[in-house]
Amino acid sequence: MSPTDDDHPTGHSAHAPGSLAHRVPDLGALQLLLAVARLGSLGGAARELGITQPAASSRIRSMERQLGVALVDRSPRGSRLTDAGALVTDWARRIVEAAEAFDAGAQALRDRRDSRLRVAASMTIAEYLLPGWLLALRAERPDTAVSLLAGNSTAVAALLLSGEADVGFVEGLTVPSGLDSAVVAHDRLIVVTAPSHPWARRRSPLAAAELAATALILREEGSGTRQVLEAALGGLARPLIELSSTTAVKAAAVSGAGPAVLSELAVGDELALRRLIRVPVNGIALARDLRAVWPTGHRPTGPARDLLSLTRV
User: Fold this and answer.
1) What is the tens place of the pLDDT at every residue in 51-88?
2) Same-domain status, 77 and 205
3) Domain-terminating residue out of 90, 112, 134
4) How many distinct structural domains can be found in the chain?
5) 291 and 162: one domain?
6) Who is most buried in 31, 91, 176, 223, counting CB within 10 A?
């Protein structure tokens, strides 16, 4: 039978103000919902997750009250998702997959003495691509311990040349001296600004000369993003703000501090939500290759080779 009206809220709490943590179900609840969808049984989902069926039922009801919609129809024949439940399950799957990638990246950041693969990556790659690659590596080599060192492209080269990393990933225009490389992905830099900025309302594309003459929110010197932009424009004005991570540059742009040039990888959500506006530019090419790098003559083997096989274009 379907859940009773007492099992579900009127929907008022789902729209109440407060932090996102109070409005979005926790990961355990989302994993339970995914298990119910896959197995068609609340009891089976409970067993898979190692909890009792009453506890699983209580967690589903609590999630339904939190969201203000019925998610599961229960009957003697099993548990079936409602139409709303099927939609929520699709969203839940994306959140759980993102959490798994987050966990893989976070584990790699820990200083583990038994690490057998030391990875150095420039910031954009470390933030937006590497967690997914590490998650895939974990599936293929679950016993491989990985440590991650993140920095700009210049720092990555230094770590490899000093023997402190086994393989690296950079995003600059050139391969640092002493390193061999392979292209693993492609990227494009775009100009973005907050909706309140005059550039967000302009009708014609921005000229390269105007961009070059404008004080921008920029990454620090040595970053691949800045190298590509400076080479494309033939020089840059003094930075409006200089920051050491892609996330920090993005946050400053969203706040309305000024325009920035960022990887397409970094701003998809902000563009979709119109927290940032893409500004067309004429006369410059801002495409770039993302590369795996390693010391010349020492092509990666073992786990490093396996990681490269998961990243190649």
Assistant:
1) 998 999 999 999 999 999 999 988 777 778 888 888 89
2) no
3) 112
4) 2
5) yes
6) 223
